[in-house]
Write a structure and sequence with these properties.
alpha/beta, TIM Barrel, Immunoglobulin-like, 2 domains, six-stranded antiparallel sheet, 23 strands, about 35% helix, globular
Length: about 500
């Protein structure tokens, strides 16, 4: 596997909507572009961001049955038209999470195209992440014909009583995929996490995927946990296994692929449990929600969590499920929230288009995105920020939350959150104002060795330099920031 991904303590992952990305490259080139014919300059551009892995979201074979279901849904079609002003039905290529088979879709370049893409990334020191959808498959997946024992089954009575939750496939009634809090998804059928045969089939699938990439992002991973699955399906699932699904599956995959990386899409405060079951990183939706809400104190409280837990979270301000950050956050808060996300301990995720200010949240069913003019100022900020995030200190260093304090009559310090990094590339101090008002306070670090020394604080994201005494950094560095402002400081000894 790529050393830049698996061996990095705090990796930076870049998510690409593969189908739409290739379509965009093709529009620029004036010819179809497939995974095996991506211009070298495009791979250079991705690698030049300093990322450790690229997540090619949505490479697997999509379902014609799923396409038909999507096109018959007026609400989905309305969302397609809203995203693409010149929308045509041919733009609907199917959901990447309604999978017909774990083979690379021929329309994207097939297996040879993916192999070429992986080689191109590896040559640039970048790993490859792909999808695994454990909870469900498309109704036209071969397993629905050949392996009915892998699914949660229903009866004709179930189908008559609740056709929204059950479907007849190849003469059998199967449950539609779902989570316990929402109605069933109409385009997928439910795999049975309690079936021993399904666990073995999942292991075989993952072992095959592991031959073709360096890690997987596991969709809605918590749905397959014993407690969640039992709550969702009750007696329909059959006897509850002693071992949890991921305990068993990940352990078996790692026997043949010990360095393979597992990333969980996870919610409902189950991140720590999934980490204990073998996941390297889990989504940090809590940090995302608190940054969007714009209240510093909940962010600070979240960051006081145990260090071992913090290091295995995956931080994001945007992904294909969430609205575009530039469309969600006001410009005055967007950059500070981006700094706060991408300079945290743990893994960090950037979504294609995020750092150029894209506003359109593209439905995953579409194979083409609208052309959006880039925000050049935001793009320049993004490049400067990623240059810092990709240095060895923020990729392999040690992170620590800093104490922020005020003085009598000053509550503005509560809007400031600060953390420090130590590593081979030096020290970094990050301070952000996540509140709605100007904030001022004293920031204390643990750098006792700086006492009695002169220090220079350099912020490459804003071309700013400050000269301060090391004692200030230990006893309390005075910082005053406007709302939505930040400091990302390299701390150097002066002279």
């Amino acid at each position: 596997m790529s050393l830049r991904f698996g061996a990095i303590a705090h990796p930076l992952v870049y998510e690409v909507n593969t189908w739409a990305w290739l379509a965009g490259l093709g529009a620029t080139a004036g010819r179809p572009v497939f995974l095996g014919s991506v211009p070298e300059a495009a791979w250079d551009e991705l690698a030049g961001l300093g990322v450790d892995a690229v997540w090619l979201m949505g490479v697997w074979r999509r379902s014609p049955a799923g396409v038909a279901i999507a096109l018959a849904d007026p609400r989905l079609v309305a969302s397609f038209r809203a995203a693409l002003p010149d929308y045509q039905d041919d733009d609907v290529v199917g959901s990447p999470y309604c999978i017909r088979g774990y083979q690379v879709d021929d329309r994207l370049g097939g297996p040879s195209g993916l192999a070429a893409a992986r080689d191109a990334l590896a040559a640039r020191g970048v790993g490859l992440v792909l999808d695994f959808v454990p909870n469900h498959v498309a109704p036209d997946h071969p397993w629905t014909r050949e392996r009915p024992e892998l699914f949660v089954a229903g009866s004709q009575d179930d189908l008559r009583a609740d056709p929204a939750s059950f479907v007849q496939v190849n003469g059998r009634v199967l449950a539609r995929g779902r989570d316990p809090y929402f109605p069933a998804w109409p385009d997928v059928v439910q795999l049975n996490a309690f079936a021993p045969a399904l666990r073995l089939a999942a292991v075989e699938t993952l072992q095959d995927i592991a031959e073709r990439c360096d890690g997987v992002r596991c969709d809605m991973a918590m749905l397959m946990m014993n407690d969640v699955f039992a709550k969702t399906w009750g007696d329909r699932a059959g006897p509850r296994p002693e071992a949890d699904y991921w305990d068993e599956v990940i352990a078996m995959v790692r026997r043949s692929h010990p360095n393979f990386t597992f990333v969980a899409e996870a919610y409902w405060d189950l991140e720590w449990d999934l980490m204990q079951q073998g996941f390297d990183h889990c989504y940090d939706k809590r940090l995302y929600d608190r940054l969007v809400a714009g209240d510093a104190e909940p962010v600070r409280l979240h960051l006081t969590g145990e260090a071992a837990y913090q290091r295995r979270l995956l931080r994001f301000l945007e992904n294909h499920d969430e609205p575009r950050a530039a469309a969600t956050l006001p410009p005055g808060r967007l950059r500070a929230a981006t700094v706060a996300t991408l300079t945290q301990t743990g893994a960090r995720l950037v979504h294609d288009g995020q750092l150029t200010g894209a506003h359109v949240h593209l439905p995953v069913f579409l194979g083409r995105a609208p052309a959006e003019p880039p925000d050049h100022d935001l793009a320049a900020f993004g490049r400067r920020l990623l240059a810092v995030v990709s240095d060895t200190t923020l990729r392999d260093g040690d992170w620590r939350l800093c104490e922020v304090s005020g003085w009598p009559g000053n509550d503005g310090y509560r809007d400031l959150v600060a953390w420090a990094w130590d590593g081979d590339a030096g020290r970094r101090l990050v301070v952000v104002n996540l509140g709605a008002d100007r904030g001022a306070g004293h920031i204390r670090t643990a750098w006792e060795d700086l006492r009695g020394r002169d220090c220079r604080l350099v912020d490459p994201t804003q071309d700013a330099t400050f000269d301060r005494r090391g004692d200030d950094l230990v006893d309390g560095l005075y910082v005053e920031l406007a709302p939505g402002a930040w400091h990302l400081l390299a701390v150097e000894e002066a002279g």
